[in-house]
Amino acid sequence: MPPSPLATRPSARPTLPSFQQVYAESAAFVWRTLRRLGVRDADLEDVSQETFVVVHRKLAEFDGGAAVRTWLFGICRRVASDYRRKAHVLRETTVAELPEGTQAPEQVEVVARRQARALLDRLLDELDEDKRAVFVLFELEQWPMAEVAQAVGCPVQTAYARLYAAREWVQRAVARARAEGGER
Prior knowledge:
- This protein is an all-alpha fold and about 180 residues long.
- The chain folds into two domains: about 1-90, Orthogonal Bundle (Rna Polymerase Sigma Factor, Chain: A), CATH 1.10.1740.10; about 105-180, Arc Repressor Mutant, subunit A.
- Helices cover about 65% and strands about 0% of the residues.
- It has helices at about 20-35, 45-60, 70-85, 105-125, 130-140, 145-150, 155-180.
- The mean pLDDT is about 80.
- InterPro entries: RNA_pol_sigma-70-like, RNA_pol_sigma-70_dom, RNA_pol_sigma70_r2, RNA_pol_sigma70_r4_t2, RNA_pol_sigma_r2, RNA_pol_sigma_r3/r4-like, WH-like_DNA-bd_sf.
């Protein structure tokens, strides 16, 4: 099966994918990316839709200078940044208390995963935008560093430096959260 045109760098004269193709192959990526860039779960549907409105409007202008998913990440980054700047966005903290009573082992695992995800989301909210973008693309989306650097618009070595700083910060923050009892 040939690789998706959305995941590979296009040739000099790219054939533009259709909006339907971009949506079908990228909806999950856009959803994950927006969530990891600070969009609350309650707002993900609306912000994802807003992102694809921008994609639909700008698709004809896509010049193929980068891979489609790199271009999409840039749109996600701007839309998420605009979302976080809006005054109506409240910084909520989640309370992850288990209900009283017995729970099946799989329920305990589901709760533990939700708690871990909530902790990661809180920690990502505290990272500056440049480090967060590199961390999300490299560690969570598992992009090659060359593509990460292109997506965030910096040299590869700078992207590695941001990744190193983000990893160090996340490790210290997780240790602090565990010490405070926020993550067991």
